[in-house]
Fold:
Amino acid sequence: MGADPTTSVVNRYMQCWDVPNVFSLGASAFPHNISYNYSMTIGAATLFALEAIKSQYLKSAGPLVHT
Structure:
């Protein structure tokens, strides 16, 4: 997850840079496992992405972050 498509796979909304209709929700967006119990972080990131999908993406499908 990152702000630059050359150094990350998904943007801050867990939306794939190359295919804007693909969202990768869950722990797969993290490059490594945090020491322990990161369920709350994953849940918060997922809720953040879902809110953006509801409020922005469904109204106008496309990239949520423009480079």
